[in-house]
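Ops channel
N.P.: pipeline sanity check, posting one input/output pair.
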């Protein structure tokens, strides 16, 4: 017997409740979690994929965030304002309506981002050879900053998208990067004035790297490349510019996301973080947090907790095409939020676990009182401590599966 659509939905509801581990909206609101308009609105389209879900607008997304307890919302300019309406009176009406929706549903706007990859104007990239394209890009960046201040955002994110090439020799990479820097310089200069006008602090401008897609070659493919770019001398306000690493983007090039985040922390530039999951050296599948690499995620959050990261955790994932439109709000987002919260709290357990702390302390102390020049003696004196490396990995696995809280298999 086949189930009606309502019966299928009830089944999803029943099984998701049976999974347990759900947090009430007021608990979810304690975390600085943001939900992107584009993630909720994603219809499942891709090069080989037809859309599978119906469109949703900002009112529907903001209302859902309010109900689910996702405290912050973020958007590209063109997620909510059609390109022809940008910088027109219609834009003002839309932005005012967004402001009303945010207030009504108790959601705040954390971040705005300028779409510089989708529209045909960006075919040759946001820092194209054509001065008209670059001048238009600057107008768009400044406009996005204005929208951000109007909506009370604290961050602007820049994913350069098509900043790269299909063919070598069309452009000089140093020139393209200079043009890109000029765009960011104009954005920062505009922000300084806009912030003063709005009597607000300037936004935190965060660069997001992705190693592949949508170009064959990307000029700033990793968070490390972004950090180098910030310090290249090309930026007039490097102090206003930080990074927005995306977990999967660092994994995609074969890096260790935790190490990439550590380098950004040391540079004082880890301001915003896109959370999702996926596979090494594959496409940008943007799977929801924790569904592929839960152990790695636990360790990433342990690092961020340990360093007092205070920025947003942005749910930049794409609900899979197999999830229905209703399922996006009924299951996908709440489950992603709850996995994040669980992993974050588990990271607290890793940090305070007495066994791990004993092991870390012993390793840091090492064997004492040794003759500095005697390599064999130093190696021999520390030899037994080395076993703690594997013990630590085992203990973290136990935390992940709850064995540190006496979860046992009675065999
Ligand atoms: C991706 C990118 C985007 C950006 C977004 C904000 O996964 O393709 O991460 O989702 O985060 O464009 O600038
Ligand atoms: Mn992202
Ligand atoms: Mn991605």
């Amino acid at each position: 017997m086949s189930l009606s659509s309502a019966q299928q939905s009830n089944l999803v509801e029943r099984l998701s409740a049976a999974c347990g581990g759900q947090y009430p909206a007021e608990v979810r609101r304690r975390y600085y979690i943001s939900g992107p308009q584009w993630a909720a609105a994603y219809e499942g389209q891709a090069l080989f994929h037809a859309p599978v879900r119906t469109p949703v607008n900002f009112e529907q997304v903001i209302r859902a965030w309010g109900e689910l307890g996702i405290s912050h919302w973020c958007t590209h300019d063109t997620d909510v304002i059609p390109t022809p309406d940008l910088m027109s009176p219609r834009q003002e009406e839309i932005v005012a309506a967004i402001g009303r929706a945010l207030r009504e549903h108790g959601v705040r706007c954390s971040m705005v981002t300028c779409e510089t990859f989708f529209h045909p104007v960006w075919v040759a990239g946001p820092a194209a050879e054509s001065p008209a394209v670059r001048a238009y890009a600057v107008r768009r960046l400044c406009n996005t900053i204005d929208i951000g201040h109007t909506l009370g955002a604290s961050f602007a994110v820049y994913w350069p998208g098509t900043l790269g090439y299909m063919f070598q020799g069309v452009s000089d990479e140093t020139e393209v990067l200079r043009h890109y820097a000029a765009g960011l310089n104009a954005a920062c200069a505009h922000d300084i004035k806009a912030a003063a006008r709005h009597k607000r602090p300037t936004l935190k401008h965060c660069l997001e790297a992705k190693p592949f897609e949508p170009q064959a070659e990307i000029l700033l493919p990793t968070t490390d490349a972004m950090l180098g770019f910030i310090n290249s001398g090309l930026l007039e306000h490097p102090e206003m510019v930080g990074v927005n690493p995306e977990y999967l983007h660092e994994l995609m090039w074969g890096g260790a996301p935790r190490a990439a985040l550590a380098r950004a922390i040391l540079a004082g530039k880890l301001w915003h973080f896109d959370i999702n999951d996926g596979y090494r050296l594959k496409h940008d599948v943007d799977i929801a947090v924790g569904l592929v690499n839960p152990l790695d995620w636990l360790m990433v959050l342990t690092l961020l907790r340990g360093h007092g990261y205070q920025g947003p955790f942005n749910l930049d994932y794409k609900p899979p095409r197999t999830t229905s439109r209703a399922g996006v709000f009924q299951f996908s987002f709440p489950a992603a939020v709850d996995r994040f919260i669980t992993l974050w709290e588990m990271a607290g357990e890793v940090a305070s676990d007495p066994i791990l702390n004993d092991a870390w302390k012993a390793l840091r102390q090492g064997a004492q009182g040794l003759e500095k020049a005697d390599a064999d003696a130093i190696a021999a004196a520390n030899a037994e401590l080395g076993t703690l490396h594997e013990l630590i990995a085992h203990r973290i696995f136990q935390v992940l599966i709850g064995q540190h809280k006496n979860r046992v298999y009675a065999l």
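N.P.: looks fine end to end. The chain has two domains: 22-352, 354-405.
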